[in-house]
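Whether sequence alone determines local backbone shape is best considered at the level of individual chains. When preparing material for the folding task, we compiled for one chain both its residues and its backbone structure tokens. No coordinates are needed to read the tokens, only the vocabulary itself. For completeness, the protein is quoted in full, as a sequence line and a line of structure tokens:
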Amino acid sequence: MMTGAYSESYLNDAMENLGDMVDYSVCDLGFDPDEFFGWFISSKISSEFESGNPKYIAGMSGVELANAILKEVNVTYKYRDHEYTDYKGKEYWSGWIYAYYQWITGKRFCDLVERGLKLSTVMSMYILHEADESKFVEVANEIVSRNVNQRKPRLVEIRKARGYSQKELSDASGVSLRMIQLYEQRQNDINKAQASVVLKLSKALGCGVEDILE
């Protein structure tokens, strides 16, 4: 098994709480799953959850997480009690297995969604709910990999968004033009680049190191 994003001792709580959070927000509050998950990602709670902050992955219930997210993103809604039942449907399972996948990959929720793993997509995979978690990981990896290969490299997207040509980025960062071209053509893997190179590029682009990694 790959190294998780945080201590495995917290994993069961994290999975159950994210499952309850999704179940409550979709089934009880009636929010669209992808819209709510977008609010989750835009809140600070997402990054705290990813890093394994015990306050969020174990110290708060799914209902408390959902309410905290909605408060932070300033969404008006009518509070409802959570209808706890023995039956756990696709809403609960999608949050439950998503927490597992984020843990085992160590990737940010926003990156996973960007790479095609929307919450509604996970819900559509409910047929896997009785299979071992490794089967979901296998299928999710295929989705993520396929979408990464179809997209332009993130370095290209961010460079263009900043209005830089390759030459201008080279001048601003001190990274050779040829090296930038090789990364953008995926002939060289930017994930295997020297840390100093990635840091120079991210500083020149005004973004985080993780934003230009594939």
Summary: The chain has a mean pLDDT of 92. DSSP finds 14 helices and no strands in the chain. The first helix runs from residue 11 to 28. The two ends are 21 Å apart (CA to CA).
